[in-house]
Amino acid sequence: MQKGFVAYNNEQKSLEAETEGIKNSQTLIQKAMNWFSARSMFVVAYGTGCGAIEMPPVFTSRYDIERLGVVGVATPRQADIMIVSGYCSLKTLRRVIRTYEQMSEPKYVIALGSCTINGGMYWDSYNTIKKLEEYIGVDMYVAGCMPRPEALIEGFVKLQESIRNNTIQPGYVKYREDYAYYQANQEKLLGKETQPVYEEDYAGMNLS
Ligand code: SF4
Known about the structure:
Elements (H helix, E strand, L loop, with lengths): L1 H37 L2 E4 L6 H9 L10 E4 L7 E4 L5 H13 L5 E5 L1 H5 L21 E3 L6 H16 L6 H7 L1 H12 L7 H4 L7
Parallel strand pairs: 1-2, 3-4, 4-5
Helix pairs in contact: 1-5, 2-5, 6-7
The protein binds iron/sulfur cluster.
């Protein structure tokens, strides 16, 4: 009986050690994945509001953010970062939602400028939104009107740090898990057509 108990104990310990080993290697893989994600950011080439003017110097030779592993791409399906670079009219918001939903996970959003935080100087406008985070997941706000390129770079550095250290609660997870909340906000503002209906643009055209 005693022998059987010792054998059971030993087996249990070896199983625990094995599980611990798997956990450690998973942690190592996760750490590597986080590091790679932080150092290869593909930003969808899209701009709205005044911030669209501040972005080109960040991506070109003046500030050259490619040094930090940040590059632009033409399509949302290959991108993992979207910069919403200023005020969003209702018409623009539909495009922002469409673009955000087309991006695959993991994906992150940087909201640039006061207009995305509280409406900024358009706080009482009838056709611009006040808080971007009510409509899509937002991971980083960069305050200012308009933030300089250095501030946007600082935003990228902070985002990279939090991805690398796994201290971020990604907006896309919240968007996925709490979709009813976002959908209700979107519909309250935009009605049932929360995304542009491109099919209507082509109605009656022979595209074959
Ligand atoms: S925060 Fe200022 S600079 Fe940025 S979009 Fe709004 S008004 Fe323009």
